[in-house]
Amino acid sequence: MANKLNRRQLLHGMLLSGAAGGVAMAAAKYPSPIRNIYDLADAINYGLHDLLLSGQPLVREYDRANVAQIFPTSGVTSPRDERYQRMLANNFEDWTLKIEGLVDNPMELSLSELRAMNSQTQVTLHTCDEGWSAIGEWTGVPLWQLLQLVGVQPGAKYVIFHCMDTQGDGNLYYESIDLFAASHPQTILAYGLNGNPVPEPNGAPLRLRIETQIGYKHAKFVERVEVTDTLAHVGAGRGGWWEDIDNAVWYAGL
Ligand SMILES: Nc1nc2c(c(=O)[nH]1)N[C@H]1C(S)=C(S)[C@@H](COP(=O)(O)O)O[C@H]1N2
Ligand SMILES: [Mo]
Questions:
Q1: pLDDT of 29-47, one tens digit each?
Q2: Structural domain boundaries enclosing 225
Q3: 208 and 161 in contact (C-beta within 8 Å)?
Q4: Is 10 among the domain residues?
Q5: Most informative mutation of 172, 189, 209, 220 for ligand 1 (most atoms within 8 A of CB)
Q6: In the chain, how many domains are there?
Q7: What H or E segment, with its residue span, contains residue 94?
Q8: In the chain, N or C: fewer CB atoms in 10 Å?
Q9: Contact 219/174 with Cβ under 8 angstroms?
Q10: Contact 100, 152 (CB under 8 A)
């Protein structure tokens, strides 16, 4: 007997294969192998956000009156690295931010050079995966502006933030985002918190604010920004220190 598909079955099939196609596409775009159901959900979320957030909508900004008087701290709050402590003692006079990798003009910028650039101030909510959140007023240089300055080369996909703090396992903290998130208007490299220089525990002298993603993506104590087409060469190759050691998901969109 002919097994004719009715309209409904056909529609169902189309929807299912469409969804499967979407998942496959999202998984293909994800920068590292899918390890578990959390990575799969993260990959789908990543693909979906890419569609839904294509206009780069802004995250909410708060009134300055809502700023937490003492911004909480998390992770490393005082890098025990001798090199870092020496720079801190010297007010970061000899610290520079290096921007390199797949760029036309690699650059090294001092803190005063960064402060002299166009600055942006935003009052935003920080959400840590460990269950706290706090509002802070952050001032810094939009990342897109720095990327424009150095000239991102064709083929570049990610931006890696190399930090100065050695973690308990002996590895330096690092994080990465894709160029889309790096170009978000509220993604900044911040040197100011609540009108003061970023204090040591919060990532002096410079830390990332990636307002569309969760706490651990906000790399503190940044000293090098690497534009790249792969995440495989740093740490265990999963795009971040937490991602490498703890099954943390790479795309941590809020
Ligand atoms: N270099 C570095 N960056 C880091 C961390 C860290 O341990 N080292 N911890 C992360 C985590 S889990 C969070 S929630 C935020 C905390 O930032 P805060 O200490 O300013 O609150 O920094 C993130 N960036
Ligand atoms: Mo966190």
A1: 899 889 999 999 999 999 8
A2: 59-246
A3: yes
A4: no
A5: 220
A6: 1
A7: none
A8: N
A9: yes
A10: no
